[in-house]
């Protein structure tokens, strides 16, 4: 179960995606199956390293558009919806009702959150989220205040207590996310083991650590001392693993064992646009890497445009060139290479082993 989370190509090879793969390989019109959704650009934290800081302007997707859009997704057999940001998704007005509605329309739901409002929507999240990933990035209250400046009373304890209560009644996976920070004279590498121990103690299914990126999504450089601490902590954290608790490290961390943190692409189109998309209050974008960059916008969802009409008429397929525009590390580069092999015929859908993975979030 845990190893499947980051295994995107195996997920895509499941029976769930067989028809989409066949249509794509035959160059038929296909639409995104996973929608990342920024309900709002509001946030109660003031994280100095927030890559979306310039986009936090208090805008939210209007309720009537939001619910109509979810109907639209359901009618087009979207597999999964990820509430993310942008801002903090749980700050969307009556978020619990929105989540309940999405689940009632047959959508699988994932949530990426800072965790502050988990306690407010506990029952709805526990019942309707296939997974929840909480960005904690610290192991204690004092460190959290440095990493995530805010004016919320007892915020770290509130987040941890909310996660603890969610763990008791959840029906999906709960993850503790830890962003590696070496900035402003602050370092959290030595906290990794304590944070992972805390994650295990409160009932999380996994602890994930990941590298920071800059405003253009390039991996941030760390000192040798910092990275040595991370690798030492990785070995130590592995001792915490059980059948019910795992330590997860994304593939991007392996880039730090190489000389080059960039990931040049030799392809000029991004087929992933046809599999996943991002909807925000300011428009629809091909992916979170292009969030807020208007030249990559597919347009806005409003009374004149539903989601699918934007894809029918968008020119973003032609002018987004990954070899030029995406030289940073893309976590789904492997999917793009897989899709190109389908188009070339090097991989044939009817000869592709059917994966047994049930997780739809490619």
TrEMBL record:
InterPro entries: Aldolase_TIM, Radical_SAM_PqqE_MftC-like, rSAM, rSAM_sf. Keywords: Iron, Iron-sulfur, Metal-binding, S-adenosyl-L-methionine. It comes from the Bacteria. Residues 29-257 form the Radical SAM core domain. One of its GO terms (molecular function) is metal ion binding. This is Radical SAM core domain-containing protein. It comes from Pseudolactococcus insecticola.
